Amino acid sequence: MSARRPRRLRDRDTAQQAQLIRTTFWLYPTAVIMLGVFAFWLKQEGWISPAAFNIALLINIPVAWLMVLGVDRLVRGASEGLVQVLHAGGNIKPDPAFSLEDSLVIRGQVDAARATLEARLTGGPEDTAVRLRLADLHGRTLRDPVTAQRWYLEARRGQCDDRQEAAIANGLIDLYRASGQRGRLMVELARFAERWPGTRAAEDARRELREMKAESAE
Questions:
Q1: How far, rounded to the nearest angstrom, does the alpha carbon of residue 146 sit from its chain's CA centroid?
Q2: 145-169, pLDDT tens digit by residue?
Q3: In angstroms, rounded to a whole number, what is the distance separating the alpha carbons of residues 114 and 59?
Q4: Following DSSP, what letter does each residue of 5-32 receive, concatenated?
């Protein structure tokens, strides 16, 4: 019996397959049409015979597929290079891929996506990214702000980098603002302004906090 591949490799393969499917869907028909038009132009100009034109139409099918594979390889290489550049400075591991869960949500299988995400919690540092995705799923798709808040707070208690801390803070601010939890919103705004001083987002948080305090004083 062959050993099962590690989860990280399976997730990466799934993401690459999904990317190839998207590239094929958008590029392959266009490539076939463009090659066909080019062959038709060559025939009209007298560069190739009608028989050669018919052969070219058949050859265009595998040629278009090779073009799709080439573009997919270039896109994948560019994206992987960008990830390496973005994470090289702090030696930060990229978030795990969520292509499977995204596809389940698109197909309307939200409960299956939720269960799959929860099954990925292992107690390791990657749990922060999974909890963030669970919080987003409950907040935006399942319309369950209570559970979304719980996942955001659990993510905050885990190992977070600056980007994840900002995502948690913004998620909680949006959640409290939408649900009308003024007290918690004010606390989160103050926390955000203190955590990222000197930034435009911090200044916006301070301004909103001042406006809320002024409204409460009226």
A1: 24
A2: 999 999 999 999 999 998 999 999 9
A3: 45
A4: PPHHHHHHHHHHHHHHHHHHHHHHHHHH
- Average pLDDT on 66-88 reads 54
Average pLDDT, integer, range 43-51: 80
d(CA 47, CA 11): 49
Is residue 95 very low, low, confident or very high in pLDDT (cuts 50, 70, 90)? low
Q: Which residues, 6+ apart, have CB-to-CB distance to 209 below 8 Å? A: 186, 189, 190, 193
Buried b (16+ CB within 10 A) or exposed e, 41-57: eebeeeebeeeebeebe
CA dist list (Å): 171 to 22, 102, 198, 214: 29, 19, 21, 24
- pLDDT confidence tier of residue 81, bands split at 50, 70 and 90: very low
- Which of 3.40.50.920, 3.30.1130.10, 1.25.40.10, 1.20.950.20 would CATH assign to domain 108-217? 1.25.40.10
pLDDT at 82: 39
The structural domains of the chain, with segments of one domain joined by +, span: 7-88, 108-217
Angle between helices 127-136 and 110-119 (to 10 degrees): 160
Contacts 24+ apart (CB under 8 A), 99-106: 99/11, 99/14, 99/15, 99/18, 100/11, 100/14, 101/133, 101/137, 103/18, 105/137, 105/141
Banded pLDDT at 195 (limits 50, 70, 90) = very high
